[in-house]
Predict the structure.
Amino acid sequence: MELSYKAKLYLKNLVGKKTNRKIVVIHIDDYGSIRVKNAEARNKMIQAGLPLDNNRYFCFDTLCTTEDLQMMFDVLTSVKDKNGHFACVTPFANVANPDFERIRESGFTQYYRETIVDTFKRLGPAYDGAYELWKQGVSEDIFHPEYHGTEHICVRRFMRALQQGNKSTLLAFDNESVCLSALPGEEQIPFASSVFNIEKPEDNEPLKDYIKAGCGIFKDKLGYYPKQFTPGNGPHSLSLNPTLYDCGIRYIDAGRHMSSPLGNGAFEKHSYYNGKRDKYNMTYIVRNCVFEPYHNSCARNNNAVKICLDNVDVAFKMHAPAIISTHRVNFTGGIEKTHRDESLKQLKAILQEIIKKWPDVEFMNSSQMADELF
C-alpha cells in the first residue's frame, strides 16, 4: 500500500516543467462565492427538512469573515522564505453573487448579480473590513486572487429551477444561499455550481459575456485583471479560451485529465501538465500537492499534514514546483469556528515544516511562479 501511494506521487510529477528551485504555491478555490449565508440560515434550512449534515460544503462553507481572513493572514506572515517573503495564497475567486432581492422582484424572470463588495456590505458586521483585507493582502503579496468564474453558480440552471418552482432551490434562495442538497423525494439539480458545464453548444455564447463582465468586476474591485483561470466546479469548453485570453487570462489551472464539454452530452478528453500550451496560446498549470483537513463527509482528515508534506517532498525530488490544492471551506469559521481553527493550525504546521526542511524554499503566488517558469 505504501509503495503504491508513493509511486503515485512520483508518477504525477514525471511530466511537466522542471526547476531546481524549491517553489511553493498554494491554490485555494471558492473565495468570494456564497454557499450558505450563515449559521442562522443553515439552521432554518435544516429545520425545513433540507439535509445539510453529510457534506462539508453544506456543514461549513460560507464567505470568509473579516476574522477568518485576519487569522489566515496571521498564519501566512508567521513564516518567511529565503528571500524574506511571507507565505502567499492564490485564492481562485468569484467576484459576484446573485442579487436575491432584485431577482425576486423580477418574479424570477431576470437574473441580477451583485459584486463581492456589495455582498460583504449586505452580510453585516462580521464582514466589515473584509474587502479592505482582500486589497491589503494583494498589496502585501500574501493573498493574490485569480479568476474562478464570475459567480459560482450555473445561472442558466439556477434560474430555470427557480422558475419551475424547485422547492429546495427556493428554500435556499429564501435563506440567501445556493447550490445545496435536495429535499427528500426531490431530484437534485444537476451541476448547479458547475458554471461552464454546458448543455448545448450555444450555451457558450452568453458565457463569453459572463467572462467579460467578471473580469471587468475583478479589475474594478481588485485593481488588476486576472492572469489565471480555473473553472468553478468542473471543466469548461476550450472554445471559451479566446475570450479568456482577450480578457487577460494567460494561464489555466486544470486537472491532469479533464473532459471539455461540447454540448448535447458530448465531451472531448484532454491531458495537461505544467507548462503545456494549447492552440489558443494558453499555458496550463496542474496542482501536484493536496491539503484537505476535512473529508467531504465532514470527518476530519487526520493525515492531512503528512499527505501534504509527502506531496511537497516528492515534487521537490522530481524538480517540480509544489502547487498545493485546497478549498476555502477549510478556512471559514462563519458557521463553525473549531473547524477553521484546526485547519489553520495544520496549515501553519505545514509551512513551518517546509521552511525547516527546505530552507531554500521560495513562496510565490501562482502567477509569479508561472511567469518565471513557463
User: Anything to note?
Assistant: Residues 337-357 form the longest helix (21 residues). The radius of gyration is 20 Å. The longest strand covers residues 22-31. The mean pLDDT is 95.
